[in-house]
Every structure is written in C-alpha cells, then in structure tokens.
Design goal:
By secondary structure, the protein is α/β, with parallel strands linked by helices. The chain has helices spanning 24-37, 51-63, 77-87, 103-110, 114-129, 147-160, 176-189, 209-218, 240-249, 251-254, 265-276, 297-305, 333-342, 349-365, 371-382, 426-438, 482-501; strands at residues 2-3, 5-8, 41-45, 68-74, 93-100, 135-140, 164-169, 197-202, 223-226, 256-257, 325-327, 369-370, 389-397, 405-412, 415-422, 443-451, 460-468, 471-479. It has three domains: 2-276, TIM Barrel; 293-382, no CATH class; 389-501, 2-Layer Sandwich (Double Stranded RNA Binding Domain), CATH 3.30.160. It starts with a strand and ends with a helix. Bound molecules: 3-methyl-2-oxobutanoic acid and zinc ion. Zinc ion binds at residues 13, 168, 170, 201, 203, 233.
C-alpha cells in the first residue's frame, strides 16, 4: 500500500475563514495537536501577510518537531524571502509558492501573459530552492486552467526544482470524475511528473472538496491538502477528518494509507472549533455530535444485535470515548496536569497554576468536570490572547413586564469604566452597555449559545460574530451563567479586533 501525505492547512487556509483570527498561543496549541495527530506537513501561515503571521510561523518552526513546517508565499522575491526566514528554525521546512494560471486570473487579476506567468513561476521556484530543497508549487485555479498551459507550467516548475506540485480547485468548481481525470491526465502528459509528488487542494463551494480530493487520490495524487473540520476560505477546504477516515475505512478500494493517528481526531476537532469559534454542525461527517449516534428504533435494535449493522466506524477510532467524569473538586493539580496532557495541552507552570485556580472555581459551581469543560476552561481562561478589556462586574435585570437593563464595569488596563443601558432583551442591554463603556461600537452579526455537556449544570458556551469596519471577527465566552458568557464572548471579539486593527 502506498502512503498519502496529509498536508494540514488549518493554520493558513483555515485561518482565512471569515471571522477567524487566532493568537500565536492558540496557533501553537493547534500545531502541537496536529503533530500529535501525525499530519505530515503543517502549513503554519502566510508570513508576508502580517507581522503576526510571520511571528506565528516562526514560533511553530522553532517549537514543533516531527511534521514538515511549510510557509506560503506568492512567487514574488520579497514573499519568498520572508517565508524562508520564518520557517528557517524548523528542522524540516518547505516553501509553498503559488501563482495563478487560469485565463480569468491572468487576464483580470494579474494582467500578465502566459509567457510572463511561466517565467515568474520558474524564477519563483528557483529562488525558493536556494532556501530549501523542499519546494511546492501551486498553479492557483488549476482546475480552470487551460490544460496544455497547466502541463507546461508543471513541467517547467518541476524542472526548476519543485518537489511537490499542488493542483488547487481554488473556487470549488470541479466535479469528482472531472477532477480525477485531470490528475490522470497530468500523470500522462507531464513528462517529468515522476520527479514530484502530486498534491491536491480542494475547496468546498459546491460541497465536493472531499469527493474531489479522494477522486484525485484514486488517480494518482499522493498528497492531500485539508483542514480540521473543513474550515477555510468561503465554504471551506476538504475536511481532514473525512479524508483520513475514508482512506482508513476503505482500504479495499483505495489500497492506500495515511500516518494519521485517528484517535487524536476528535480532540483536535474540539480544539480547532473552540479556538476558531467555528462550531461544528451536529450532522457533520465523522466529528459532528450526531455522526456516531443512533436514534431510530430499527437502527438501535440492529446496532445492539451487531454493531456493524449500522456502524462503519467506532467512536474509539476517532478518540471519542464516552464522555467520562474525569475530575471533581477533590482532584489535585497533578491529576489536572495529566488530563490536560491527554487532551493535547502543554502548559507552563504558571499557566498550570492559572488553570488549576480556574478549575477549582468551576468545581465549586459544577460537581462533575468533563473533558469538554476542561478544554473550554483552558481555551477561555488560560490561553487567551492579550486582552485589553476585562469584565469586572455585571448586573442584569430582566423578566416578564420589566425593561431589560444591564450595569457593567470593565477594566481597561488600570482604568475602570462603568455604564448602564437598557435594550430589547438582556443580551442587547449588555452589549449596548459595553459599547457605551468602552466607546467602541460594533455590529452583532451572529450569536449562538450551547451547552458544552449534557447536564443541567453544564457550562454555557456563547459564540458571537461582530463587525467592526470592514472586518468580521469571532469571540467566544464560557461560564456556568450564560448571561456572563454572553458578555465575555462580546468582549473577546472586541479584544481580538482591537489587537488586529487597533482601537
Ligand atoms: O485555494 C488555493 O488556490 C490556495 C493556494 C494558495 C494553494 O489556497
Ligand atoms: Zn485554498
């Protein structure tokens, strides 16, 4: 059986999802977990895009051992040099450079001729090659590129030194049979294709990203670019969990394997949805909360008689054991540390002290502490990005026949600011009071609340999406009190936005 390389781009294309902005700490946690998961390549970011992106790629390159660390760059020299410098500390590093080759992109976006594009692609690969042997070239919008030109670009870039050529379905336009044929045609028509690995990178605009990637794999692609939970630009990218499980569950068909340790899938999925605020839909394949649940009577009956009647993968295969009570208020620091390590978090002593304090406070309110509680606690109380505004006091009055009113006090550095406001409901009142107190107004675009675990005393998780200027940004707050969680979520979105765009 041949291996399919898993190239994870959660931290690059995934972070391009509308409203998502991860801090360096969050990116490092995810990268560590991706290494535990056993992905082959981590695309850590697009270093020229911002100073923060550069720093995050560099931090990941310094710390993460195991997977190859890739940095994305356009074919421009300044992009390539910046990406090369960010990935330099990595033991195994890759430069991933891209340039659009479809007529639409060349005519309207780049305003360049085929000859110019070909020259830029070759020069880009040669320059990248001067920094590392491991160079990947992507002809952006490959699935809409004239085939003969695509072959020419691939042949030239492989001759220039590209060791991986990636075929992106940038706008999710292709259909599975067609995309598979494209890969088979590339294998036939590009003379030196044997010197490079064929990779694919599919977007999900028509819901085909996973099907297209798998069809490509059946036709000779040996690297798949994907993201955890399928997050990414617009409708997202091919979902890592679905690709990996499909190859694992159907060896009879694919005759291939990946080196992903599937038992880490569920916790990686949880970490990514927690940090990005991109909630996983309950019916999502593999990691959705309903994906491995049986509800109809006939199914339950069949399942109880013989599991394989209705189950093609077991919860344990993706690391989803029965949600078990792991800790109570009597548990000690050591037990918490061990559980955190099992969940993929590695904490400094100072962070562990902070986590332990938050854990004890939670255990006073909630008898049984589940994995989901601990995970949320770390994401919200310990690994928080630098926060300018902190919730200090909140009082809300509401009820039938009353005017919902909120009084809020916020710490802005050393300063305390307080305000009162009324609205058409308690959340509206809180958000208006926050806007007045900090003097920033944002538009609430989306609000959702859910319970992290099943019981009545569960932690409530609130995810909001706000708009400030042209940017949308997500924030998340947790608390056993959903009113408090709502205030924290709104403040967390504002803090992230202030950190990215300034006041
Ligand atoms: O979708 C795309 O074409 C990309 C490239 C940079 C590979 O993300
Ligand atoms: Zn993409």
């Amino acid at each position: 059986m041949e291996k399919v390389y898993i190239f994870d781009t959660t931290l690059r294309d995934g972070e391009q999802s509308c409203g998502v902005s991860l801090s360096i700490k969050e990116k490092l946690d995810i990268a560590r977990q991706l290494a535990n998961l056993g992905v082959d390549i981590i695309e850590a970011g697009f270093p020229i895009a911002s100073h923060g992106d550069f720093e995050a790629v560099q931090a990941i390159a310094e710390e993460i051992d195991g997977p190859v660390i890739a940095g994305l760059a356009r074919v421009l020299p300044e992009d390539i040099e910046r990406a090369a410098s960010a990935i330099k500390p990595a033991k195994r590093r890759r430069l991933h450079i891209f340039l659009a080759t479809s007529k639409i992109h060349m005519d309207y976006k780049l305003k360049k001729s085929k000859e110019e594009i070909l020259k830029m692609a070759v020069e880009g690969v040669k320059l990248a090659k001067s920094f590392t042997d491991d160079v990947e070239f992507s002809p952006e919008d490959a699935s809409r590129t004239e085939k003969s030109f695509l072959y020419e670009v691939l042949e030239a870039t492989i001759s220039a030194g590209a060791t991986t050529v990636n075929i992106p379905d940038t706008v999710g336009y292709a259909m599975p049979a067609e995309f598979g044929t494209l890969i088979a045609d590339i294998k036939r028509a590009v003379k030196n294709i044997g010197k490079a690995i064929i990779s694919v990178h599919c977007h999900n605009d028509l819901g085909m990203a996973v099907a297209n990637s798998l069809s490509a794999v059946m036709n000779g692609a040996r690297q798949v670019e994907c993201t955890m939970n399928g997050i990414g630009e617009r409708a997202g990218n091919a979902s890592l969990d679905e690709i990996v499980m499909a190859i694992k569950i159907r060896p009879d068909l694919f005759q291939l394997f990946t080196e992903v340790n599937t038992q880490h899938i569920y916790k990686t999925s949880k970490m990514v949805s927690g940090y990005t605020g991109m909630v996983v839909q309950p019916n999502k394949a593999v990691v959705g909360s309903n994906a491995l649940a049986h509800s109809s009577g006939i199914h339950q009956d069949g399942f109880l008689k013989e599991r394989t009647t209705y189950e093609i993968m077991r919860p344990e295969d993706i690391g989803l054991a029965e949600s078990k009570i792991v800790l109570t208020k009597l548990s000690g620091r050591h037990a918490l540390k061990k559980r955190l390590q099992d969940l993929g978090f590695s904490l400094t002593d100072e962070e562990l002290s902070c986590a332990f304090k938050a854990f004890k406070e939670l255990a006073d309110k909630k008898k049984e502490i589940f994995d989901a509680d601990i995970q949320a606690l770390i994401e919200d109380e310990v690994h928080i990005p630098p926060e300018r505004f902190k919730l200090d006091y909140l009082y809300v009055s509401c009820g039938t026949g009353t005017i919902p009113t909120a009084t809020i006090r916020i710490k802005d550095g050393e300063r305390l600011v307080q305000e009162v406001a009324w609205g058409n409901g308690p959340i509206d009142a809180i958000y208006l009071a926050i806007d007045k107190a900090i003097g920033i107004s944002s538009k609430l675009k989306d609000y959702s609340v859910s319970a992290l675990t099943g019981e009545k005393e569960a932690i409530g998780e609130v995810v909001v999406r706000i708009e400030r200027g042209v940017k949308e940004i997500t924030g998340r707050g947790i608390s056993t009190d959903i009113i408090e969680a709502s205030a924290k979520a709104y403040l967390s979105a504002i803090n992230r936005s202030v950190q990215n765009q300034g006041f």
